[in-house]
Design a protein that fits this description.
This protein is mainly alpha-helical and 272 residues long. It has 13 helices and three strands. Strands 1-2-3 form a three-stranded antiparallel beta sheet. The longest helix has 18 residues, at 55-72.
Length: 272
């Protein structure tokens, strides 16, 4: 019993991803024993806070530790911390227009531009976009097959405009079906940090500061626009690959401009 056995079972019986194993391992470092007491659990959370972890970071570790506690049969549980409800960072409509209508001149800029278009048009995670292979693109039915979190595949639609951009890029650069759509010179995975750097540089080149969590902001922007244009939260959950509807409901907290527009229509003081 203990951490090693838990990780072993998760890896070979539950077939979790290496990233999930790493998440568990990192969380267990906050515990001083594989059979902690309630006071030991409290001390673990205190250490997290003293090290500067935010509520969201603490809750991520707490979730992993609670999973271990259930598995071990210990009748203990760490309550999650209350997280602040923040407005999710998004690109403005004007910024999206600048990104979409940018005219790249070389292969590297074309690859970057197409990546941004995929993120904005499908709402996929950056890791899902970077692991996308040409064979995962159904041009006839306008569908992408994505490898999501926890080895969960899902199929999401894309627009005809994105289809045109995908077709041009694949044809012009001879991207074979078994190749990654976005790859480096060695035909291996692009580094996420390098992509983040390039997208931030592109934003500044186009005349605006990139929003916080720049790559994930494309996902936020897609979700807010989806709801704003009349899409349902239930359909959005499927498109984004969220395991629970509660995760998707965060996007229902729309922009201030939306709230102002609604208020103007319902206000008792409005004329007409």
């Amino acid at each position: 019993m203990g951490f090693a056995q838990f990780l072993r079972e998760r890896q070979y019986l539950h077939n979790v991803t290496p990233a999930t194993l790493e998440w568990y391992t990192h969380a267990f470092k906050w515990l001083d024993s594989d059979a902690p007491s309630q006071d030991g659990l409290k001390e673990a959370v205190l250490r997290m806070r003293e090290k500067g972890l935010r509520a969201t970071g603490c809750n991520s570790a707490i979730q992993a530790i609670n999973c271990y506690l259930r598995w071990s049969g210990l009748e203990l549980k760490i309550p999650k911390m209350k997280e602040p409800v923040l407005i999710l960072p998004t690109f403005t409509a004007a910024q999206v227009a600048l990104l979409v209508h940018w005219k790249p001149k070389n292969f590297y800029h074309r690859r970057l531009h197409l990546l941004v278009l995929v993120l904005l048009d499908t709402g996929c995670r950056i890791t899902e976009a970077l692991t996308l292979r040409v064979s995962d693109i159904d041009m006839d039915n306008l569908l992408l097959t994505l490898d999501g979190k926890g080895r969960k595949q899902r199929v999401v639609p894309f627009s005809f405009e994105l289809r045109k951009a995908l077709h041009r890029f694949i044809a012009d650069h001879n991207r074979k079906p078994d190749l990654l759509l976005f790859a480096n010179r060695m035909e291996t995975l692009l580094g996420r940090r390098n992509v983040l750097r390039d997208v931030k540089l592109l934003c500044r080149r186009l005349g605006f500061d990139p929003p916080a969590r720049t790559l994930h902001s494309c996902r936020h922007t897609f979700a807010v626009n989806y709801l704003r244009k009349g899409g349902s939260v239930f359909h959005l959950q499927k498109v984004l690959g969220h395991s629970s509807l509660e995760m998707t409901r965060r996007y229902a907290n729309l922009m201030t401009a939306d709230l102002q527009a609604v208020h103007e229509r319902v206000s008792l003081l409005s004329r007409g």
